[in-house]
Amino acid sequence: MTTTVQRDASRAPPPRVPPVWIAGMRYAQVPGDLETDGQVGGILAAYDASNRQMWRLKVYENARRPEREGDVQDVWFRSLRVERGKLLIENERGERFAVDPATGRVCGCPAPAPEPKSDIDPISGQPRIRRPGA
Q1: Which residues contact 91 (CB under 8 A, 6 or more apart)?
Q2: CA torsion 62→10→17→57, rounded to 10°?
Q3: What's the sign of the alpha-carbon dihedral 107, 113, 117, 119?
Q4: Side-chain half-sphere CA neighbours of 55 within 13 A
Q5: CA-based angle 115:110:31, to the nearest 5?
């Protein structure tokens, strides 16, 4: 008798990233909508003191490939913090972005992702594929 083990392609839940506050405004990662945002992860929202959403921003692009399961392709924030009046975001790929809360726009290009510390991809949970000489 042969037993077949089926791996579930689903990923672990996204990291829990607490919101931050600047001058009474709350900034938090929110799940995107595929129809309106074109992606699920990578969306930042600003809320006033009455919890009304003031703006919503796609911080980075994360196009999905239709042949792959959707949730394993989502790239969420790993961290969100305030530094010198800017919102600094690092995503699960290690890319870093700066957002100006006054304008609600990304104001910095992503810094290069640091070399991964593990041979396991944090999003898919699968071993990383290394190119020779890379």
Answers
A1: 41, 42, 59, 60, 75, 76, 77, 78, 97
A2: 30
A3: positive
A4: 12
A5: 100
d(CA 37, CA 107): 19
Instruction: List pLDDT tens digits, range 69-89.
Output: 767 788 999 999 999 999 999
pLDDT of residue 49: 95
CB 42 within 8 A of CB 58: yes
| pLDDT greater than 90 at residue 68 | no
Q: How far apart are CA 5 and CA 16, in angstroms?
A: 30
Q: What does the block give as tokens for 62?
A: 């994360």
Q: Give the predicted TM-score (pTM) of the model.
A: 0.72
